[in-house]
């Protein structure tokens, strides 16, 4: 299966998952979990890579450089964590499987950092630089994510049940997943070059 089909499959599944939650708001994993806010924010993940690629292509064109091929895999990988979060809610895994949230934080940050490193990899040469850059981006992303969760809960969303222990655990697990994702991406890049 080619990377373009994977990208469209992930983006289509994201849209379908959001729609299911809107049509059936009383599903146990959806009710009280900030689904309307997710419907506003999660689609943005599907726009990040196209916008960045377009801006970069325009800049390269003005400079007389050739446009780089569209990063379909990085686009799919960036959307995947949002899709997995939605699917986990739709089948109520967050409330029924005690370790699911922890596993998802670790796994999602592997995908997220893989995507980010693959996006910046053409501009960075050394493997260790990619690992450090990806790890830092992953750590910053989880801090921003946890801050956003806090804001959403503070706005009155009742189903998140955030605690100090949960937040610290999420920070550690996501950062660890991000380091692994950065290492995998750096290795993939060195194999491609």
Alpha-beta classification: mainly alpha
Q: Helix and strand succession?
A: HHHHHHHH
Shape: globular
What's the pLDDT, averaged over the residues?
Answer: 87
What percent strand? under 5%
Describe the structure.
This protein is an all-alpha fold and about 190 residues long. Helix content is about 75%, strand content about 0%. The protein has 8 helices and no strands. It has helices at about 5-25, 35-40, 45-60, 70-90, 95, 100-120, 125-155, 165-190. Helix 6 crosses helix 7 and helix 6 (about 100-120) runs parallel beside helix 8 (about 165-190). The longest helix has 29 residues, at about 165-190. The protein is globular and about 55 Å long. It starts with a helix and ends with a helix. The mean pLDDT is about 85.
Summarize, please.
With 193 residues, this protein is an all-alpha fold. It has eight helices and no strands.
Secondary structure layout plus pairing:
Layout: H1 3-23, H2 35-41, H3 45-62, H4 72-90, H5 93-96, H6 100-120, H7 127-154, H8 164-192
Helix pairs in contact: 1-2, 1-4, 3-4, 4-6, 6-7, 6-8, 7-8
Features of the shown structure:
mainly alpha, 8 helices, globular
């Amino acid at each position: 299966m080619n990377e373009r089909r994977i990208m469209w499959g992930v983006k289509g599944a994201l849209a379908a998952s959001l729609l299911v939650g809107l049509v059936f708001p009383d599903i146990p994993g959806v009710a009280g979990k900030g689904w309307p806010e997710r419907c506003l924010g999660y689609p943005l993940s599907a726009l990040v890579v196209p916008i960045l690629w377009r801006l970069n292509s325009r800049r390269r064109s003005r400079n007389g450089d050739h446009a780089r091929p569209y990063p379909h895999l990085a686009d799919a990988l960036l959307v995947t964590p949002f899709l997995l979060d939605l699917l986990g809610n739709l089948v109520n895994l967050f409330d029924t499987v005690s370790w699911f949230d922890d596993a998802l934080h670790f796994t999602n940050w592997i995908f997220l950092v893989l995507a980010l490193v693959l996006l910046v990899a053409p501009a960075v040469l050394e493997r260790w630089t990619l690992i450090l850059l990806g790890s830092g981006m992953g750590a910053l992303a989880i801090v921003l994510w946890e801050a956003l969760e806090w804001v959403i809960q503070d706005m009155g969303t009742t189903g998140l049940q955030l605690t100090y222990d949960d937040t610290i655990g999420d920070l550690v697990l996501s950062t660890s997943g991000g380091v692994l994702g950065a290492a995998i991406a750096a290795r993939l890049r060195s194999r491609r070059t």
